[in-house]
Amino acid sequence: MLDRMKDAVDAELRDQQAGFRKDRSCTDQIATLRIIVEQSVEWNSSLYINFIDYEKAFDSVDRRTLWKLLRHYGVPEKIANIIRNSYDGLQFKVVHGGQLTDAFQVRTGVRQGCLLSPFLFLLVVDWLMKTSTSEGKHGMQWTAQNQLEFLNFPDDSQCSISLCISRLQNTQGKTKVLKFKTKNTNSTTLDGETLEDVESFAYL
User: Fold this and answer.
1) Where is the Reverse transcriptase domain (predicted)?
2) Total domains, the chain
3) For residue 76, what pLDDT band results from cuts at 50, 70 and 90?
4) Is the pTM of this model over 0.85?
5) Predicted local distance difference test score (pLDDT) of residue 144
6) pLDDT tens, 163-201?
7) 172 occurs within a structural domain
8) Rounded to whole angstroms, how far apart are CA atoms 18 and 34?
9) Taking a C-beta distance cutoff of 8 angstroms, is the pair 129, 16 a contact?
10) SS3 sequence, 107-170?
11) Which residue segment(s) compose the domain that 28 sits in?
């Protein structure tokens, strides 16, 4: 089912999205980012890189939005119905103090550990990125032909200018800023939080 969903959706995803896609990986994004940094230094141009980590990424997905996105991205209706029905009345129990709690419903998020969940989350992130950059100025002109925007992989995003997030919240303490060839000492803020400037970052 995952393979069929990928085949239907892949052509609709942005080129910048590398997570959970065939013949794409984290190393592609790292190589791209390294080239960007090297060319920025070579051209003596300022570069600001904002690494954003989503807090409780899988738990933050709004399911009603997700069901709409399955149709929006062209997932076959039969598969979309199977996925949606598998979440209807979904109940959980947890062990607390050595005792199993009563069953309770969780109405948001996608399942942890499910093979489908990473790809379902990818659809949400891809849609957020598309809608947040659909109007106005975004990214930066890198060459005469190429506009530089976002690089995405699982629940981390790197962007060159800014990021508009709906429902997903950035993880405090894990969202960092790298600056190259700039004399600007002003701090960067996101949702009222001052982001830490760092000299290096473990990308994933």
Assistant:
1) 1-204
2) 1
3) very high
4) no
5) 56
6) 333 345 555 667 778 777 777 777 877 777 778 787 777
7) yes
8) 16
9) yes
10) CCCCCCCCCCHHHHHHHHHHHHHHHHCCCCCCCEECCCCCEECEEEECCEEEECCCCCCCCCEE
11) 2-61+112-197
